[in-house]
Amino acid sequence: MYAKNNSCFYLQQKTQEIRAIVGKRWLQKLSTCMLVMFVSVTYALFSGSTTASALPSPLLAQVDLESNFVTEAVDKTESAVVQVTVSRTIGGDVPDFIRPFFGGIQSVPPTAPVVQGLGSGFVIDSAGHILTNAHVVDDADTVAVSFQDGRILQGQVLGKDPVTDVAVIQVQAENLPTVALGDSDKVRQGQWAIAIGNPLGLQETVTVGVISGTERSSATIGIPDKRVGFIQTDAAINPGNSGGPLLNAKGEVIGINTAIIRGTQGLGFAIPINTARAIAQQLISTGKVDHPYIGVQMLALNPQIQQQINNTPNSGIRVEEDQGILVVQVGKNSPAAKAGLRTGDVIQAINNQPVTKPSTVQQLLDKAGIGGKLEMEVLRKGRTVTLTLEPEQLPTIQTR
């Protein structure tokens, strides 16, 4: 019995030794195989040989996209991006009581001081129309437009709209490069954003980031009296970038870089190109823009905002709905007030079209125009009310 058990123990021990030897040899072969594979792939990647084509094509496509989409977008657009140099003369004629100090009445008075400002812009068509910001060309006496190819052309301001901060300049030249305009209504948070401009006079500067937000109101970002739902980006936008294009990954213009908030880092804003394009068409045609208004402040509702408003003491508003457009304030003697719209009303539809964003309300308002009709379906304390509003011309904004 002992001998039998001893034999079994011997066989088990030998079996384990054989397995260990086989295992070591298998590991050695596996290690050798992996080393050969590593050397082969490394050689293919770094030698420039055709062996690199053995890599999976989706991986190569992904590497190419990550490496080149910014440069491809810039190459597609940068020749149509311009530097806008504006000269403004400050002061006027020398007062009579000062003239004796310059040799009497007959003497030529000293030249009034001239201030220069820098901005950016981009060519949108072969007729030489250039989009930029209204504040870039405000009070301009002369406008010089510098192109990437070295040309410097005199520009004419066809019109500017301080309400949206959009302006159109025109230059007379042939064979002008132009940008491709995208669709800003399709912009989403997290998408790539590429800003091109001339910050601090440094021409053809490119910065990259993402879309941080959309539909930012002027009141929210500290730029009063602008009727724009701004695109927010973390692509660096500095003085001189104003008027330059904000691009998507395809190299299409989705906005006009327009502002930075002082004292903050990483916040830039752009006018959606769909808004700018509509304003530009009016400026090119008539040199001015008609802005219909109804006189309300609006807020898009969702469950979180509904809860926040209802939980705020002394808000003065009780919101029963979590979808639609909340009327936050109604201007005195405004078209909305005349039609009976009230603070706390929730707009559900305009002209039979559901509305969930202030930008949609603005689009329908612009479509109706001054003197048009807006049929509003409104929820008020649980019941539906239908109101008819007639938009009027936006009152002139007094600026300093």
From TrEMBL:
InterPro entries: HhoA_HhoB_HtrA-like, PDZ, PDZ_sf, Peptidase_S1_PA, Peptidase_S1C. One of its GO terms (molecular function) is serine-type endopeptidase activity. Pfam families: PDZ_2, Trypsin_2. Gene3D superfamilies: 2.30.42.10, 2.40.10.120. Keywords: Hydrolase, Membrane, Protease, Transmembrane, Transmembrane helix. NCBIfam families: HhoA_HhoB_HtrA. PROSITE patterns: PDZ (PS50106). This is Trypsin-like peptidase domain-containing protein. Residues 304-355 form the PDZ domain.
